[in-house]
Amino acid sequence: GPFLFIANEWKPGEKVVFTKNTKYKPRAEPPSGLAGGKVVKVDRVEWIAMPDVQTQVAALGNAEIDMIESPGHDLLPLLAKDKGIKIVDANPLGNQYVIRFNQIQKPFDNAKIRHAVMVAFGQEDFLKATIGDSKYYKLCKPVFICGTPLASEEGMKDVLNQNSAKAKELVKEAGYDGTPVVLLQSTDLQVLTNLAPVAKSQLEAAGFKVDMQSSDWQSVVGRRVKKDPVDKGGWNLMLTSWTAADILNPVMAGFFNAACDKAMFGWPCDETIEKMRDQFAKETDPAKQKQIAIDLQKYWVDHPTHVNLGQWYAPQAMRSNIDGTMISPAPVFWNISKK
Fold first, then answer.
1. pTM higher than the cut 0.90
2. Are 29 and 129 part of one and the same domain?
3. Do 52 and 86 belong together in one domain?
4. What CATH number has the domain bearing residue 104?
5. Both 116 and 13 in a single domain?
6. Angstrom distance (rounded) from CA 76 to CA 48
7. Is residue 215 located within the same domain as residue 294?
8. CB neighbours (10 Å) of residue 305?
9. Are residues 137 and 277 in the same domain?
10. Is residue 45 located within the same domain as residue 146?
11. What pLDDT tens digit does each residue of the chain (339 aa) get?
12. Measured between alpha carbons, how far is residue 319 from residues 77, 314, 315, 338 in Å?
């Protein structure tokens, strides 16, 4: 590839170094996101771990670093006032917050109870608590990203309205027995930390008892793959975020995989969803693909594998002398130059 990983300079949790691969020959066409000619214009790229956000801002302001990949949204107005810094939205499709059900554990093995959660939730509280500034978030009921070809409101009218009264009726009708549900909270990632308290509040308003268990993100990642019973280290609910470019259709969207043990953590097992995903993959007519996606969304509302909690955007902050940033779902460093 266009860069070489310098293993002897790697310091886990501190620094990763890449240098220009002088033997790499880029394609002839212009660069385009993750495609096209990957022309490297700098000799060296260092990724530096800097957990403290104030330290990040000070380092960028003093030109000790050239870029912050994901500055805190509350700091963007401060950064924008510095003439030596520019704010760049390199991922205009953004991201989508989601809550994932563990469907091999009660009560979320029951589709009616999962549907009740969709009725209970409203997106705006989640987005306000994590992002704050409405400039950087969007309410979006369609599960396939708003502003993209498969986005549709069909089937979504009666969900994601934060209707706790209706949700409480549905929870009771579905036979929820009052056993506390374990909700995992990540405490060390700013864009995730405040999601779980909002989920807890909205779930409790719908009649659930919630045991919110807090830990760092790596512990959440380690725990979410465990199939153990909830009282032996398992879980019921966890929150995360998808890059929008990864969830544009039913085949690529990982949380729609409902192939039982072959599915991602949460392990949904739904033959109807799998059949629709297969139909979508084999269909070549875009109009027919869209109808399959709509039909799937309408079915999924009643048999959810997860719940979408709104879209959000994470601009980068960089020194004004950095040029050539690519529009792409993840930061890339070809085509970038430093004046």
1. yes
2. no
3. yes
4. 3.10.105.10
5. no
6. 20
7. yes
8. 26
9. yes
10. no
11. 999 999 999 999 999 999 999 999 999 999 999 999 999 999 999 999 998 889 999 999 999 999 999 999 999 999 999 999 999 999 999 999 999 999 999 999 999 999 999 999 999 999 999 999 999 999 999 999 999 999 999 999 999 999 999 999 999 999 999 999 999 999 999 999 999 999 999 999 999 999 999 999 999 999 999 999 999 999 999 999 999 999 999 999 999 999 999 999 999 999 999 999 999 999 999 999 999 999 999 999 999 999 999 999 999 999 999 999 999 999 999 999 999
12. 15, 17, 13, 9
Report the C-alpha gap between 44 and 171 in whole angstroms: 56
Q: Domain holding 331: CATH number? A: 3.40.190.10
207 and 87 share a domain? no
Task: Tokens for 113, please give them.
Answer: 């109870």
Q: Which domain holds residue 82?
A: 3-91+315-338
Residue keyed to tokens 């170094």: 17
What is the token pair recorded at 222? 């380690």
Write down the H helix ranges in the chain: 53-61, 76-80, 111-120, 123-130, 164-173, 190-193, 195-205, 217-224, 271-282, 286-302
Residue type (1 letter), 246: D
From CA 232, how far away is CA 226, in angstroms rounded? 10
Give dist(CA 34, CA 211) in Å, integer: 42
What's the number of domains the chain is made of? 2
SS3 for 61-101 is: HCCCCCEECCCCHHHHHHHHCCCCEEEECCCCCCEEEEEEE
Q: Are residues 112 and 69 in the same domain?
A: no
Residue type, 138: K
